[in-house]
Each structure stands twice: as structure tokens, then as C-alpha cells.
Design goal:
This protein is about 35% helix and about 25% strand. The protein has an eight-stranded mixed β-sheet with strand order 1-5-6-11-10-9-7-8. It has a three-stranded antiparallel β-sheet with strand order 2-4-3, with no helix packed on it. It is built from ten helices and eleven strands. α8 packs antiparallel against α9. The protein is an alpha+beta fold.
């Protein structure tokens, strides 16, 4: 029996003070993005399943339209925004900087609000990283910004003939069991100085990607920075430098560089409920 007051597990309810604080948070960040020449877009809650960009299709909430095409509730906003701006609105706007405030939905009934932006046809990672850092400072919090390069775990997996799932699942103990000196050092990297120390002993391909990571790290205008070369994101579209922002075991933001429709772009998403929890505490 389902009682009248019950709501599905994973869905969101905001009322009173929490609803007010949510709106104030959204207004503060959106005002900041407007000041930096971003325009707002609200994409449809529904999209065709083949256009969804999450790695596990089992997480999609799917159904069918009147012509029996497979639809899904929006599970991620990034590629939806790029696809709609370039393919549907390309003739009506040439603007490249967009932000959104909207939820995403995953199986079975999970609803998560995001405040995100996409900088289309732009590939300077420093710009999006420092934009993220400015928003963090605006909110008067100091979480950890964890910087990574998705190419490094891919190269390591190929170099040592190991499964990439070890990085996806964070199985560090199994990586240490390989007893590879440069890999053990790579696992321990956390700072700019750690990278500098490792560079002379790293394989050539990995050293090349570490130098890219080092160059970006040197330009970030944010002090609470940790470098994690082997961190591997579950979002399948990132293809270079990317990052997440964490505090108190909560991920409050993810962002990075990606390609969509042959266009190199940048983006991030702040997770509203995680931010509200941190700001409340």
C-alpha cells in the first residue's frame, strides 16, 4: 500500500526555507554567469534514447513516443545542449556560451538538479577551470578541486595490458600489486611538485600527458587543488583534462573538455543538492 504522503525514493521535494535557499543559490550563480556573457537554455525533459550520453544505458528511464521511437527522460544535459544549439538553433543564434538550471533523471526514480554551463567551440581549459573557481569563491566555500587527465589511465591500461575498469572502480591495491615503480609513483601524485619529480622516470607517452596536466595546474587560480592523474570519470564524453569538486564526501561539481558533433567544447555542472547541504553545514 502506498500512503498519500509518500513520494518515490530518489525524487526531490523543496518547501519553505530549503526552497528559498535553492532559489537564492540558483539566482546567485545565474547572475554571475549572465555577467560573464552566458545565456540561459532550458532543454526538453524528454529526448531520444540514442542521444543520451551516460555510460550505463540501464540507468535511462525509457518509454516510447506515438511513432514507437524510444524516448528517455533527460539523464545528462551536456550533449543535449550542444546538439540543440548546433543542430536545431544554429540558424537563429551564433552564441557559444550557455547555462542551464534543470534536473536530470535516472532509473528508477532519481531526480537531481544541476546548475551547469557549456562553452561551445572553445578549448582553453583554464577559462572553464577559473570560472568554476570563481563560483566556488562566490559561495564562500573551499572544497577540493581534483584535477585529472583521462588520457593517462587509458595509456597506462594499454602500456601494462590491464583492464581500464581497475581505474573506473578505483582498485588501487590491485595497481600496487603490479609492482611497477613508475606506476607506484604515479598513484601517489597529488601536487605540482610530485609531477615534476616523476616526469624524468615516466614513459614517454605518459610524460607528455603529465606535462599537459602540469601546465594546466600551474595556471589555476585556486589553492585547494589536488592532482589525481589516474582518476577516471564515469561520464563517457570527457576526452582530456577534466575535474571534480568535492567536500565532505559530496561531489559538488564536475567539468572538463569534450568533443560533440566534431566540435571541441568545455562545460561543468554544479550539483544543487550537494551545494545546499554544504552551505547549510
Amino acid at each position: 500500500m502506498i500512503l498519500e504522503h509518500e513520494i518515490p525514493k530518489g525524487s526531490r521535494l523543496y518547501f519553505g526555507d530549503i526552497a528559498k535557499r535553492k532559489r537564492q543559490l540558483e539566482n546567485k550563480i545565474s547572475s554571475f554567469l549572465y555577467e560573464h556573457k552566458f545565456e540561459e537554455i532550458i532543454t526538453p525533459n524528454f529526448s531520444y534514447s540514442q542521444h543520451q550520453s551516460i555510460e550505463d544505458n540501464n540507468k535511462l528511464i525509457t518509454f516510447f513516443d506515438q511513432k514507437n521511437h524510444s524516448l528517455a527522460l533527460r539523464a545528462d544535459s551536456t550533449l543535449d545542449v550542444v546538439r540543440i544549439i548546433t543542430k536545431r538553433l544554429g540558424r537563429t543564434t551564433s552564441h557559444k556560451k550557455w547555462f542551464y538550471i534543470q534536473p536530470v533523471f535516472t532509473y528508477a526514480s532519481n531526480e537531481d538538479y544541476q546548475i551547469g554551463c557549456e562553452w561551445i567551440n572553445h578549448d582553453n581549459m583554464i577559462d572553464i577551470l577559473n570560472l568554476t573557481a570563481s563560483i566556488i569563491k562566490l559561495l564562500n566555500v573551499e572544497p577540493i578541486l581534483q584535477l585529472a587527465n583521462i588520457n593517462i589511465p587509458k595509456i597506462v591500461a594499454n602500456e601494462l595490458n590491464i583492464d581500464i575498469s581497475l581505474f573506473k572502480n578505483g582498485e588501487i591495491a590491485k595497481l600496487f600489486e603490479l609492482n611497477c615503480t613508475w606506476l607506484n609513483s604515479l598513484i601517489k601524485v597529488k601536487t605540482i611538485d610530485d609531477i615534476k619529480e616523476l616526469l624524468p622516470n615516466a614513459p614517454e607517452e605518459i610524460a607528455k600527458e603529465l606535462k599537459i596536466l602540469l601546465d594546466i595546474a600551474n595556471q589555476i587560480e585556486y589553492k585547494n587543488l589536488i592532482i589525481s592523474p589516474l582518476y577516471y570519470s564515469s561520464l563517457k564524453y570527457y576526452n582530456g583534462i577534466y575535474y571534480r569538486v568535492v567536500q565532505d564526501n559530496l561531489t559538488i561539481c564536475r567539468g572538463g573538455k569534450y568533443n560533440s558533433l566534431g566540435i571541441s567544447s568545455l562545460g561543468f555542472a554544479f550539483y544543487t543538492d550537494s551545494l545546499l547541504k554544504i552551505l547549510e553545514d
